[in-house]
């Protein structure tokens, strides 16, 4: 060890410029290489944690179940099944519907909150933001349980309404339904809407709004022509951040959905569990991913067109 | 099968508040926390996590992979005395799910299948025979429970040491459910109570009960005709069901609240609810209840083999048996455990010192092939999803 380091030092002393210069020259020449080098830890994790499992999933989706083992001959039969059997389409569209409604509700409810903090709070904005996201410091699971308690047969809402004498018997549609899943998702993911919305609203140059007022725009026109288009990136970010993970959500429909509230995530879990058809589960996961990507692309396209029109 | 130690009268809210309080004081135990998570039905989600942590916490204790409700100190008095601590617990909601997990490489010391699954479990090659000479309570185990199809291993040993037996039937509210004629499986198909009936989610119970309702003989269960008939009754029942769940606490709470008037359960739910003063009855359906025997198997790579035997011996002890009979209403495999109860109590619980009498009076589950199991689960999951 000592020897080699000595030699190394000697070598450097003999030709001080040769070796470092080659490396640094390469680094100077190629900006891309420098970029990759900086990203390398993250890149490595991405490859190990995302690309590799994805490749496994992709491969598995072309296999066939054989008892507890796999027949690894290539086949697209699983994909054909997802296309031909109505159950998969129904579960997918139900998932998109539930998650879509939850996303719209969340963004609509969070926008005013973010707006208020961005434009009407002038001191201690940070405290306001922290207060708004405070409920999200508890675990996701606890929040879902809490909703089960709130929506339950003897839950907070039902017993409250009964005490007030507004209803005679508990409302049963509150729990074990799509409604329950939508309400819970909309609440559970609110923090993911408030923050991007706040950031995009906060960035809006207030002088633009003043200028619009000076030029005769009323509050509504001003909002539609200035604030809304300029906060679009926040809305898009919030929509994606909520829509993508909630579509495949598992625990909320499992606990609150009941028989009619089951979503595609529950079915994928079953394939890896009791149904014991891992290739089918892998196929469903990939089909779900493709659909989400397609929907996201359409959504981006539409919002961009809309933005151009407004501008 | 899955039973919970929980006080069903408590609401989940109180549990959450209690937990938050304990969390603040920094003394929430992992076991308690996971048990409470389980009570709301997320066993599946947390099992791998909890068990890994469990092994990290007490590495030299055996791990018992079991149904919810068996992860309690009452059943491990002897084990605790000998080894100082409780074994580690990992919990599943259905035995097929458990087998899939172990097929996926999850290693435990002892697991808890039932007679209908046992030959398939043996066929996976994931288990080793139980050396009965190492069990101090073996001589008291009822031989008729040991003598099950596929249970004989070489050298007079067995694959599964029988532990508990019981029934799957209908628990109903005597004050809310208006009985028409005799008790029957039709109660869970009663249109009058649409949306107020509950069912276990696992096909391992529900499908077999569907077979009884459809009048399919268990001998012909694997015929296409049987599949069609059972699927038809399951589809007929599905719109009437408020929730399918493997979490017995959910069913018990719903029955206690009157949210459900009748549900498919195991013995323990009725016994637990009665103990709480809820007017319920565990039906004796005229078509017969579903009956089963569950037991203990040792993983072939069990890392704590000696303690695995301690787990089994503890579960087979008279003390555990008394608890099982008295608090859960299950039959136990140790004949001496029954001595503490008079005939009247046993009849009231639907039990007997002669288990075969009870098991044969109902429809006794029997082993099926892996293909059958998979086909059944696939079909039943589709039906539950509405297809």
Average pLDDT level of chain A:
88
The low-confidence parts of chain B are: 1-16, 26-56
Task: Give the CA-CA distance, first to last residue of chain B.
Answer: 27 Å
| Order of helical and strand elements of chain A | HHHEEHHHHHHHHHHHHH
Assign the CATH superfamily of the largest domain in chain A: MetI-like
CATH topology term of the largest domain in chain B = D-Maltodextrin-Binding Protein, domain 2
Can you name the CATH architecture of the largest domain in chain A?
Answer: Orthogonal Bundle
* Backbone shape of chain A: globular
Number of strands of chain B: 12
Tell me the major beta sheet of chain B: 12 strands, mixed
General form of chain B: globular
* Biggest sheet layout of chain A: 2 strands, antiparallel
**Which regions of chain A contain 5 or more consecutive residues with pLDDT less than 50?**
1-16
Tell me the strand order in the biggest sheet of chain A: 1-2
Instruction: Quote the beta fraction of chain A.
Output: under 5%
Number of strands of chain A: 2
- Domain count of chain B, please report it: 2
**Proportion in helices of chain A:** over 70%
Q: Rounded to an integer, what's the Rg of chain B over CA atoms?
A: 20 Å
């Amino acid at each position: 060890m000592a020897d080699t380091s000595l030699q190394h030092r000697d070598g450097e002393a003999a030709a001080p410029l040769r070796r470092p210069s080659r490396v640094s020259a390469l680094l100077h020449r190629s900006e891309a290489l420098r970029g990759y080098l900086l990203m390398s830890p993250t890149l490595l994790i991405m490859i190990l944690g995302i690309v590799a499992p994805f490749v496994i999933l992709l491969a598995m989706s072309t296999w066939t179940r054989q008892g507890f083992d796999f027949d690894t001959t290539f086949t697209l039969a699983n994909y054909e099944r997802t296309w031909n059997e109505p159950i998969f389409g129904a579960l997918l569209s139900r998932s998109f519907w539930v998650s879509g409604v939850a996303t719209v509700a969340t963004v609509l409810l969070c926008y005013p909150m973010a707006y208020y903090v961005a434009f009407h709070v002038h001191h201690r904005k940070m405290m306001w933001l922290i207060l708004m996201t405070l409920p999200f410091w508890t675990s996701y699971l606890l929040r879902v349980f809490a909703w089960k308690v709130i929506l339950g047969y003897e839950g907070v809402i039902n017993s409250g309404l009964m005490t007030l004498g507004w209803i005679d018997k508990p409302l049963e549609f509150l729990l074990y339904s799509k409604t329950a899943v939508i309400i819970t998702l909309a609440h559970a993911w609110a923090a993911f809407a408030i923050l991007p919305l706040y950031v995009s609203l906060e960035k809006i140059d207030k002088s633009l709004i003043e200028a619009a007022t000076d030029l005769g725009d009323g509050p509504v026109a001003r909002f539609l022509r200035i604030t809304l288009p300029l906060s679009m990136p926040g809305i898009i970010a919030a929509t994606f951040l909520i829509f993508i993970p909630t579509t495949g959500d598992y625990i909320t429909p499992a606990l609150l959905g009941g028989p009619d509230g089951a979503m595609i995530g529950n079915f994928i879990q079953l394939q890896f569990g009791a149904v014991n058809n891992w290739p089918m589960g892998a196929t469903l996961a990939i089909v779900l991913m493709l659909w989400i990507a397609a929907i996201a692309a359409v959504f981006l396209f539409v919002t961009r067109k809309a933005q151009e029109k407004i501008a | 099968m899955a039973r919970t130690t929980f006080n069903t009268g408590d609401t989940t809210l109180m549990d959450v508040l209690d937990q938050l309080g304990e969390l603040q004081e920094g003394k929430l135990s992992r076991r308690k926390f996971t048990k409470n998570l389980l009570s709301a039905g997320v066993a599946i989600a947390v099992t791998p996590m909890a068990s890994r942590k469990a092994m990290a916490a007490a590495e030299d204790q055996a791990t018992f992979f079991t149904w919810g409700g068996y992860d309690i100190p009452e059943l491990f008095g002897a084990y605790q005395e000998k080894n100082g601590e409780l074994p580690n617990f990992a919990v599943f909601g259905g035995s097929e799910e458990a087998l899939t997990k172990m097929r996926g490489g999850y290693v435990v010391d002892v697991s808890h299948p039932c007679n209908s699954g046992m030959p398939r479990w043996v066929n996976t090659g994931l288990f080793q025979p139980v050396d009965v000479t190492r069990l101090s309570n073996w001589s008291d185990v009822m031989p008729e429970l040991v003598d099950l199809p596929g249970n004989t291993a070489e050298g007079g040993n067995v694959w599964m040491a029988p532990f508990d037996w019981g029934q799957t039937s209908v628990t109903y509210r005597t004050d809310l459910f208006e009985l028409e004629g005799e008790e029957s499986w039709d109660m869970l198909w009663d249109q009058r109570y649409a949306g107020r009936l509950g069912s276990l989610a696992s096909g391992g119970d529900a499908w077999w009960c569907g077979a009884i309702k459809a009048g399919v003989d268990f001998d012909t269960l694997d015929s296409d005709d049987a599949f069609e008939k059972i699927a038809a009754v399951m589809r007929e029942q599905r719109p009437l069901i408020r929730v399918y769940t493997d979490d017995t606490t959910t069913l018990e709470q719903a029955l206690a609240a009157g949210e459900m008037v009748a549900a498919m359960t195991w013995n323990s739910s009725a016994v637990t609810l009665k103990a709480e003063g809820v007017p319920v009855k565990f039906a004796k359906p005229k078509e017969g209840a579903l009956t089963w025997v569950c037991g203990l198997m040792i993983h072939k790579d069990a890392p704590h083999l000696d303690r695995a035997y301690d787990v089994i011996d503890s579960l087979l002890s008279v003390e555990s048996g008394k608890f099982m009979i008295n608090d859960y209403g299950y039959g136990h495999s140790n004949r001496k455990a029954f001595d503490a109860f008079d005939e009247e109590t046993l009849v009231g619980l639907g039990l007997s010192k002669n288990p075969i009498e009870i098991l044969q009076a109902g429809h006794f589950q029997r082993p099926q092939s892996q293909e059958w199991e998979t086909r059944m689960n696939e079909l039943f999951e589709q039906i539950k999803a509405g297809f």
